[in-house]
Amino acid sequence: MIVVGGSASRRLAWEIARELNCRFSQPEIKSFPDGELYVRIPEDLSGEEVVVVQSTPPPQNENLMQLLLLLEASLEQGPRTLRAVVPYLAYARQDKIFKKGEALSLKLVSQLIEKAGAEEVLVVDIHERESLSYFSVPVKNVSAAPLLGRYFRGMNLKDPLFLGPDEKAVQQASLAARELGAAFDSLEKERLSPELVVTSSKELRVRDRDAVIIDDIISTGGTIAEAAKILKRSGARRIFAACTHPVLSGNALEKMKAAGVEAVVGTNTIENSHSLVSVAPAVAEGLRQGSLDFY
Ligand code: R5P
User: Fold this and answer.
1) 222 CA distance to ligand 1 centroid (A)?
2) Same domain, 86 and 173
3) Which residues are known to be catalytic?
4) Structural domain contains residue 293
5) What is the DSSP-derived secondary structure letter of residue 54?
6) For ligand 1, what atom is nearest to the CA of residue 165?
7) Does 59 share its domain with 175?
8) Per-residue pLDDT tens over the stretch 253-279
9) For the residues 142-162, what does the mean pLDDT come to?
């Protein structure tokens, strides 16, 4: 097996290759003077089991195009199998037509990845599992929540509560909490355009306890900030935020800090200064399982 690391996931790809004890390839990637991308994979991939690892965080379009070109460059060499690991799948939140006339972005993105040659796809904590049905090749969704939970083991938290800011995130809260034998719960969220409303219909028992708000994505930080305000009002001692995909757009960090969040812990599906947890073990395990499940 050989793992090809795109520029958005080079370090992660290298870690995956190390976990799998296989070869790592660093492709040549450059831009032509007019801005078009050029990729070349120098290793001989013919007859190999090839895994292309390339996340698609901002700049999404550029990273997506690089992923497609890396798949095409691999395919041209006649690999035995070709798999794509896309830790953060761009456009995953436009998985439905919310208003007449919109593009169904995720459907097109899925089709492009497939068309470029991916015979199987692995993603990490996709926004909605059902949306993976836009792929017609096998696709696997692995969760980073246990790894995030493990990170908090060493932090000496006081009677911690893992909190999903909406009902959907309760599964992540539960998987992370399990790593510490801790409690978990969730809030409710509604997007009443243009306002985001996070509420709790029940009493949160967090007085003098530490809390970790955990979600799949932190983008504007609005969801986490609203959840943190509820925790503060309920008497929480220390508040942390954790997520799989630290998109952290605009003033997300300032917003969360102002709401009482002490630290933000993300994974390296998006590589930045908040990617403190590597998803390499979970991805490697997913790849090791061989023929992938349908989500
Ligand atoms: C939405 O349902 C997701 O799970 C996240 O809660 C959301 O994408 C976070 O976005 P933001 O940080 O902009 O509130």
Assistant:
1) 8
2) no
3) 189
4) no
5) -
6) 6
7) no
8) 999 999 999 999 999 999 999 999 999
9) 96
